């Protein structure tokens, strides 16, 4: 018996890993096989450096596991290190990506004939085929190729691996081709785990039948497999199935009934489908259920009471549905719950007191609801249930108010807190320093005020802190950061905080992201930044810094992905800008030539500086690689000379703004080939005609070449070839000829500015086809909004309400037409009045004649109307008084006549709106004289009789005055003696009145 026990012990020990401990060396033929495998592998991070001819025992190599007795390799695990957290820096992700193995799989693995475990998951094999020879490795029981970027069809040879217990081919970025059937799985009698997530099974109508016949199957993962509802009406009896994942498919109501017959299920994931209506009560029949995920569907009822009778459920997610009403008191019955996610619904508060019964709760997510409750009340409830156990709390965007109390510091195990986008006010409690486990804190976009705590007394594990967009103020001390040694992301922009540490201060942390926009960090450039060696994102814009940027700053930014130092008073020249994606240097005092840039930079803001010289060295002499520049903002600098003709290698530019410089000459042909979305060359000294090559920019949304010296006719190709134009400004040039009818084809046009040119002829009647000016803008132009919100378009200058205005954030809501200061003739076409969404119409300074169209009142949205300095005649149309939004009106210097129509709107303008005409009535002082009216018919007689009655009293008064005047005063004027006698009599009467009064 002791001998048999000894043999058993040896057998158990024999299957253990021998890394570094085995006295048995690996077999030479298997070592050779591993080296041959490595030759076809690309290893950017040199992870397999221990795999070498002189590397000694291969059982000690990374990822290689050998049998302790025989020396045979039985396990090969070459997964890269764990994926970094979502808030990790680009540098950290770069390290992770470089750790991925690439290349191809060498057949030498067939020599490892005792290999039972092969894991190549989460590497990057560049969409190569899964090798068919893997089907010959018959000893395999575990095969994981998930997330390794394989492509092509699943090789049917894998069906030969009859001993497989674990098969994971999921998450290959949908690169696996469709599988028309799954019959190759039929022989897997021992298979316990199957993951085909991401494989297109839309034509594999046998998926349910085949997987149902796998007797040992415990876990089935078919996420994102393009599954529709039940493929065939079969009896389903997964005898061993515990985990079922059918998430992210096309499953629609009802929830498949066969699921509710699987009484052994422990985990069900049906998230990301199209289920709707009431959550089926049949889930309560699965008594062993511990994990239920119904998130990202369209369930739209109230929370069912029965749902909270699932006393064994540890994970429940209903995130991203349309559930309504209050959270019922019965939620307190979830006695085993550890993770509860009800986020992204339309639930209303307050939270029920019964929540205090959830003693096992570890993670709570109620974000993106309408709880409408004070934060202090929620903390009290949670404190009573799980102060010692709660690890994650997400209440972002939940309509919370009140203060953060010191009670927050008593949740000792909290590692994740998100309270952003609420209305929480008051101080950040100093007790937050007691949360030693806290790694993630987001209280951004609230109403928090006061100072930051001077000192967080205890060391913290905080890696991510976001306090941006609050009302915090005061001086930040160095002590606040003293115990934040692990801080990696610090976002605190849009507060009124001041931080000016000692010049020799060395931060205790090394961040990847620092965002301190609108802090006061100046006036000197903050020297402590130089100790942030891993910095990839820095925003110190609008920080009150007035200094020369030190040379060390440009030397240490080699890892910088995003840099924003705009809106300061920074000075100096920049030979090379070592930023990889986005650089924002706007509104500073940088001078000298434009700096050289790295080839992978995508977005550059150099606006409002003093960069000078020509563009040639920046564009034509570029030698650092193929540039990927997408957006280039050079507006408001001192750039001069001609635009060089060397844009060929800058084919990625889609947004270009070179306005407000001193550029001269013609627009070169090569510039027109770039395929712009936005082009602004306003206010330079460019001349000639726009090149025909610009007609190829059919995705152009904005073209502004105003305030230059362009000549010739307006090109017809603008209307023919640029169908997506929303903004067209040719203002203040020397264009002549007629306005081409082709412009009428620009159905998306919202802003048209042709003012201050030499245009002649009539206004095209086809302007009625400018449908974007006839339809009320709703601000849903995604392209315009995206570029405006990202400040890619800084502004657009428009003449509205009599003055030049800048429009930016509401640009997609503006509709305006400006044809002023040209030589246009003819009438104002009535067709213009069909543009009912027009907000500004300026036709001033032309030679237009005729009447103002009677239907001008149809322009209901009009805010500004200027038709001054023309030859318009007739009266002001009564319909003009219907324009309720009109806030600027100029009808001056025409030949208009008659009464100004009565309305609150028209009488609110001053007389200068009407000067230079023959008008009368308010607000002009001149009253309108009485004019004879022509009456006819019965109504005319009634009106005439009413007029006589109304005005007879005035006639009588006038006649009485005349008779009295000439009867009394005239004789006095004729006879001097009569006058003297008259005045003596009046004086005597006056004396009598005086004596009576005394």
Automatic annotation (TrEMBL):
Keywords: Cell membrane, Glycoprotein, Leucine-rich repeat, Membrane, Receptor, Repeat, Signal, Transmembrane, Transmembrane helix. Residues 28-67 form the Leucine-rich repeat-containing N-terminal plant-type domain. Residues 1-20 form the signal peptide. The chain crosses the membrane at residues 952-974. Gene3D superfamilies: Ribonuclease Inhibitor (3.80.10.10). Pfam families: LRR_1, LRR_8, LRRNT_2. It is found in: Cell membrane. It comes from the Eukaryota. Its main location: membrane. InterPro entries: Leu-rich_rpt, Leu-rich_rpt_typical-subtyp, LRR_dom_sf, LRR_N_plant-typ, RLP23-like. The keyword Ion transport does not apply. Belongs to the RLP family. This is Leucine-rich repeat-containing N-terminal plant-type domain-containing protein. It comes from Hibiscus sabdariffa (roselle).
